[in-house]
Design goal:
This protein is mostly helical and 250 residues long. It has a domain of 100 residues. The protein is built from eleven helices and no strands. Helix 1 crosses helix 3. The longest helix is centred in the C-terminal third of the chain and has 48 residues. The chain is elongated, with a radius of gyration of 23 Å. It starts with a helix and ends with a helix. Keywords: Membrane, Transmembrane, Transmembrane helix. This is Type II secretion system F domain.
Length: 250
């Protein structure tokens, strides 16, 4: 379970490193997350063991939600550049009539981490360390963005069967343009909802912590009330993590 948890976040940290800060990789973020969790526990336990545990759990969940939100925004930004990627590739393929050469030249005009992943795997293929089918499968899995995954697997099928790649790419561009127009409002609504969850979670925790710091109020708070408030905040953060997936377009 812990290994799956670790690998899940390791697959996603490339988006934060390349779109936010090269030093913001998962090991650093996770260390900060643990440090904040311990700090919140130490702060809360001064008042009660329940408050210490509650603040520690909420703190850990909140930073986990923030991580997923940042990754979702980064992936959404890269997804919005997919049409540009398709158009650039289509232009080079119309000239070269060669998938490998066209992909390599396209990489000069696209952003990280897509550029680095494509170039790395093309190099491995040229060195004979990957067969043709593995090349496209690895690029699709490592990029981990639905639109790119589908394109690379479709490109593999089209190239091996002799289908008209130029025509397929043009149809994909039209489909993606329609999809983007439909996603504009949804993307805005999801982003707004995530921001509101973020803000309301902070406000709720701040107000509840102040209440627990007041002796007269603390005496009137039962364990059931405490558990209800903590559960409500955790549920909101879990909902935010699910909504982040929608923002990614997965």
């Amino acid at each position: 379970m812990l290994k799956k948890f670790w690998m899940y976040y390791k697959r996603r940290d490339k988006f934060l490193r390349y779109t936010i800060n090269n030093f913001l990789f998962f090991e650093v973020y996770f260390a900060v997350q643990i440090a904040v969790t311990i700090g919140l526990f130490a702060f809360g336990i001064r008042y009660s063991i329940l408050q210490g545990i509650g603040l520690a759990v909420i703190g850990f969940m909140f930073l986990s939600f923030l991580y997923d939100y940042l990754v979702a925004r980064a992936k959404d930004k890269l997804s919005q550049g997919f049409i540009s990627f398709l158009s650039t590739f289509a232009g080079f393929y119309a000239i070269n009539k060669n998938v490998m050469k066209s992909l390599k030249e396209t990489c000069h005009f696209i952003d990280e981490p897509v550029r680095g992943i494509v170039l790395k795997n093309l190099l491995l293929y040229e060195k004979g360390q990957l067969v043709y089918e593995e090349l496209f499968a690895r690029m699709a899995n490592e990029i981990d963005i639905k639109s790119y995954r589908n394109f690379f697997m479709l490109l593999l099928t089209a190239d091996t069967t002799g289908a008209d790649i130029t025509s397929i790419t043009r149809r994909l561009i039209g489909t993606e343009q329609e999809k983007n127009r439909a996603m504009v409002q949804l993307r805005s609504s999801i982003s707004y909802g995530l921001i509101m969850i973020f803000i309301m979670s902070i406000i709720t925790l701040y107000m509840f912590n102040n209440a627990l710091s007041t002796q007269q109020i603390t005496q009137g708070i039962t364990p059931a009330t405490f558990a209800f408030v903590m559960s409500a905040v955790i549920f909101a953060l879990l909902l935010g993590k699910v909504m982040s997936k929608w923002l990614e377009g997965e």
